[in-house]
Amino acid sequence: MKQKAKIYITLKKSVLDPQGNTVRHALNSLGFKEVEDVRLGKYMEIKLNSKIKTSIENQIRKMCDKVLVNPVIEEYTYEIEGEK
Amino acid sequence: MRFGVIVFPGSNCDQDCFHALKDVLKQEVDYIWHKDPSISGYDCIILPGGFSYGDYLRTGAIAKFSPVMKSVIREAKKGKPVIGICNGFQILLEAGLLPGAMLRNRNLRFICKYVYVSVENSREPFTKLFSPGDILKIPIAHGEGCYYADKETIKRLERQGQVIFRYCDSKGMSTESANPNGSLGNIAGICNEEGNVLGMMPHPERSSEKVLGSEDGRRIFQSILKEVL
């Protein structure tokens, strides 16, 4: 069974997000007054074959910690989907 | 003295660094292709500016896995002078040789202009020829130069004299309006605890000759010569 990991990377809450702020201003000025905050991030889809020996979650976390995410400024969440 | 300028795919200030060192400072210089891991024959390693790997993923994030970087990290830990300029600074941050990270400029623009920076610490080997408070006119050219680190790290950098350059106005005041990119503490350049690894966003190689509008950057290279020779 092939699986797919969906990884969401955003700037940490403590880190200023000027892109998110700009988008929030744009939405507000278009009349979307209900928009309080916008955070921009990255979305990745990673397809995995069945050769993984350890758990997929383990591998995904390793990839994030090693290269995909910079822990100084970013945080991440992920989901894993099965594909038959 | 023998300098090595590392060339990553996407480096674009490598030739400027080469020229400044070879033709202006009359030193021996070689290009080092990023796949060549042998850097032991050099007295000082330069990681030049540019857009290594197209800035994909994050600035410097892919370059840190280039074969040459293992050697750079090893030699830096042994005390070899390493200087990362602009994208080179970003690579040093990603590689963990310097603390912190770079964010998008606060105004979201690519900024290419002359700025003033003050020399905060006169340390070997990079700022030995300066006195604290000296003001340099030196250009920046980056889209992601907003230096960030957590509060503890910033405190430690300040306490240990690792902040080397700070954005300032023409009178040397580190004001908010003199901060081009939103860097915490107006930080433009830092070194590691030992002092042998320097990262800076401004370009000394672009300010090493009068014809370019400033010669202030040249003294950084001259400091290294004085130290290593």
Write up what this structure looks like.
- The complex is a heterodimer of chains A (84) and B (229).
- With 84 residues, chain A is of the alpha+beta class.
- Chain A has a single domain (2-83), classed as Phosphoribosylformylglycinamidine synthase subunit PurS (Mth169, Chain: A), CATH 3.30.1280.
- Chain A is built from two helices and three strands.
- In chain A, strands 2-1-3 form a three-stranded antiparallel beta sheet, with helices on one face.
- The radius of gyration of chain A is 16 Å and the shape is elongated.
- Chain B has 229 residues and is an alpha/beta fold.
- Chain B has one domain: 3-Layer(aba) Sandwich (Rossmann fold).
- The model of chain B has no long low-confidence stretch (mean pLDDT 96).
- Chain A binds chain B through residues 11, 14-16, 18-19, 22, 67-68, 70, 72-73, and chain B through 57-58, 61-62, 65, 93-94, 99-101, 103-108, 148-150, 182.
Q: What strand order characterises the main sheet of chain A?
A: 2-1-3
Top CATH class of chain A: Alpha Beta
Q: Strand-residue fraction of chain B?
A: 25-35%
CATH fold-level assignment of chain A:
Mth169, Chain: A
Would you list the SSEs of chain B in sequence order as H and E?
EHEEHEHEEEEHEEEH
Number of strands of chain A: 3
Q: What is the total number of structural domains of chain A?
A: 1
- Identify the CATH class of chain B: Alpha Beta
- The residue fraction in helices of chain A comes out at 25-40%
CATH superfamily of chain A: Phosphoribosylformylglycinamidine synthase subunit PurS
- CATH homologous superfamily identity of chain B: Class I glutamine amidotransferase (GATase) domain
Q: Uncertain segments of chain A of ≥5 residues (pLDDT<50)?
A: none
The CATH architecture of chain A comes to 2-Layer Sandwich
Helical content of chain B (DSSP H or I, runs of 4+): 10-25%
Shape of chain B: globular
Mind telling me which CATH architecture of chain B this is?
A: 3-Layer(aba) Sandwich
Average pLDDT taken over every residue of chain A: 92
Which structural class do the helices and strands of chain B define? alpha/beta
